[in-house]
Amino acid sequence: MHVAQLNFLPASESLAPAEVLDQWHSLVDIADVVASSGTRVSVIQAAACEEQITRNGIDYHFIDVRGLDGAKTRGRRFAGLLADLKADVLHGHSLAFAEDAFAVSQCLPDLPILMQDHADGPPRWWRRPQWRRWYAAITGVAFTAPELARPFTRHGLFGPHARLFAIPESSTRFTVGSRADARAETGLHGNPCVLWVGHLSPGKEPLTVLDGVARAALRLPGLQLWCAFGNAPLLDEVQARVARDPQLAGRVHLLGKVTHAQVETLMRAADLFVSGSLAESCGYVVLEALACGVTPVITDIPSFRALIGDSRVGRLWPCSDAVGLAEALVDAAASKPSPAQVRAHFDATLSFAAVGRQWADAYAQIHDDRRRRAS
């Protein structure tokens, strides 16, 4: 089977195509995930130039969409390439591009289309009749967790024959390494050594996490929290909270922004990974923590539940509940699985091979559905 993955969001004009592949990790990773199952994959990327690059046996087609005003015009351009490629299935990125996917379907009505959610919300109520028409062209939709589909399904946005799939948004190339070596390289320490990687923003609830850490420290005096972050609109509040609490001062270390490669080393050095996210379409850093063998202590939200499943490789705590976080940290510190056990869960359910098999099965189902309806 030949699957074409189409990213309708145009790449930045400031990036050359090779730079896009280097910097847009998920674009490459999702293609490699699918290819790992033996599926033939081509990638089409909206861009400001025309170029083709081949990496790891996958052809990346950069299509110049400048001047192609309107979804219909772009749809004809994409459909022409899809026809030339003789794609069996179109895997479209982001439900926000329903109009573009519909435009492609009008040119290639026999091509099954599977759209992948990337933290896309449903349209406002007054736009829903039009979006229902666009979504009717979609054969299947993939979310990390089934619950994430509910804002769409309760408003009847998808067609009656559309299949829904629960597939992790991506995977990661991170691996387990020597904890001693990672601690020597990074300077991280603690018993337990707890890592945060995420923005210091309201949706990540860093102040709740600090409250939970302060409570947990009463029973875990050796606990140290290390925070790597990018955007930090709550930085002043975080610093003030740490400074005024003797349970946090000297225990919380604000590392600031680090490179993606450095995140892997930090993960390898940690005992526990903590997140206070209120919502995620997947949770890439949780994937990375699991890949590195780190026990995640994460909020009880649909995507995180899907990532750890029924296993005991992590702990879930209620959103915005500092007491619940403290209990989860204490419990995880006392009975955390080994890095090998955490990695085994990752390999079985979240690795490139495991997720690739799920995508291959989804493609086969929607391809067979379309063929049966056509006959």
Note down, in words, how this protein is organized:
The protein is α/β, with parallel strands linked by helices and 375 residues long. The protein has two domains: 2-171 and 353-374, 3-Layer(aba) Sandwich (Rossmann fold), CATH 3.40.50; 179-349, Glycogen Phosphorylase B (Rossmann fold), CATH 3.40.50. The protein has helices at residues 17-23, 25-35, 71-85, 98-107, 128-135, 150-153, 179-186, 206-217, 235-244, 260-269, 284-291, 302-308, 322-335, 339-349, 352-374; strands at residues 2-7, 40-47, 51-55, 58-64, 89-93, 113-116, 140-143, 163-166, 193-197, 224-228, 252-256, 272-274, 295-299, 315-317. The strands form two sheets. Strands 3-4-2-1-5-6-7-8 form an eight-stranded mixed β-sheet, sandwiched between helices. Strands 11-10-9-12-13-14 form a six-stranded parallel β-sheet, with helices on both faces. Strand 13 (295-299), helix 12 (302-308) and strand 14 (315-317) form a beta-alpha-beta unit. 49% of the residues are buried. The mean pLDDT is 96.
Chain-wise SSE layout:
Blueprint: E1 2-7, H1 17-23, H2 25-35, E2 40-47, E3 51-55, E4 58-64, H3 71-85, E5 89-93, H4 98-107, E6 113-116, H5 128-135, E7 140-143, H6 150-153, E8 163-166, H7 179-186, E9 193-197, H8 206-217, E10 224-228, H9 235-244, E11 252-256, H10 260-269, E12 272-274, H11 284-291, E13 295-299, H12 302-308, E14 315-317, H13 322-335, H14 339-349, H15 352-374
Parallel strand pairs: 1-2, 1-5, 2-4, 5-6, 6-7, 7-8, 9-10, 9-12, 10-11, 12-13, 13-14
Antiparallel strand pairs: 3-4
Helix pairs in contact: 2-15, 3-4, 4-5, 7-10, 8-13
